[in-house]
Here is the input.
Amino acid sequence: MLSLTGSLALNPISPMSQALDEIVAGAPQTRVLELRPGALDELPRIFQRHFASAKPLIVADPTTYRVAGQTALELLLAAGHPEAARFVFEDPAFYAEQSYVTQLQRKLRQEPRLVPVAVGSGTISDVVKLAAHEAGRRYLAIATAASMDGYTAFGASITRHASKQTRPCAAPLAVIADLSIIAAAPAALSAAGYADLLAKMTAGADWILAAELGVEPIHQKAWDLAQSRLLEAVENPAQIRSGGLEAIQSLTEGLLLTGFAMQFAESSRPASGAEHQFSHLLDMRHHTVNGMSPLHGFKVGLGILAVAALYEYILKQPLDKLDISRCCDAWPEESRLESIIRRIFPDRQLAEVALVETRAKHNTVAELRDQLLLLRRQWPGLAQRLRRQLISFARFKQMLREAGAPVEPEEIGLTRRCLRESFVAAYHLRRRFTVLDLAVRTGLLDSALDQIFAPGGHFDQRAG
Here is the structure.
């Protein structure tokens, strides 16, 4: 069993357990982690220890309430918490959007003794995290699937005014990850979690790029948490698909480690690069397939492949010989940004978001020149670091397919033309420096896309 409250009984099948023990002992926000089959039974003890005089509020959607919420409520009632209550989001359209945060926040502020217990994965986790933060409460989280890395993460990804942004807020005080529940989750959820974890390879490459070009330094503790055991956690994608307990535990631990990385960095940078920008773009456009939004990890998985294809093209270019004058001559003045962005985004709200985000990272010509001079000097060593961080597009595709995640845009309802256009749109929607920024600044994006979508390319346009 793995039970982390400052001391640990090691699970012999899990070589990550010692790392998690040390992390919880020094984590900035999360003080308790229970990770084992049957861990949900520990909920009353944990609640009593950390919230003895409070009133527990089970927060779930109808599915997660059925899977674990009802049992959690019954355990609390039986253990002497007669005021334990539930708050179930019944809206079929429920997603991580500000109006749902406001609903829960209003409930919490009506009763100062309420402590939310989030039962669910991505949407529930993010909504409860932000609502608790805005109401001035700590909270507990009960994981129901290994589908994302946000359980132990700082920050919540919430849509507000058409813009999906990571909002600063603390991770839960305690996380209960009952492997009996998580392993029984639909295989698609584990496949989505696998894709979200695999994305740390491309996110890591983007962070290396940003650090080398003086945009955003690497937080070493967060880097080590997100990257040091990543290969170990993603090495058996076929076992993820078959639902083996050992593989699901390894996946869950990898996702929790990434969440802790974000907690230490107080940023989503350790976990999120350009591949997540593709996902956020689809979220902000309310993209659905048969009336349902594709799973977060599935959208990220296509983002991984898009980013891997772009990196493969760029890493073949002799950027140590880059024509900097040509790049500077082609660089748009800030006064032109609005007309450029409004052509890309007919939707007014999206255009406003893109304008704010693009202006936040738009260099002057002089700044661009300095950055590209640095790139040209650093490129031989930087290219080597990026190659060591990444695997091939073909290998990414194989691993995602083996885990049961989509690998073609049509599988999540995208045309290839839409995917191609998403490279440009995704660049404008986030100020975070990624390979998209490198491609735009070096003037390579159009030629890269021509090759990526050419006959025989990574996303052969004819196949769509």
About this structure: The domain at 2-185 is CATH 3.40.50.1970 (Rossmann fold). The chain has two domains: 2-185, 271-463. The beta strands are 2-4, 32-36, 55-60, 85-88, 114-119, 140-143, 156-160, 163-167, 174-178.
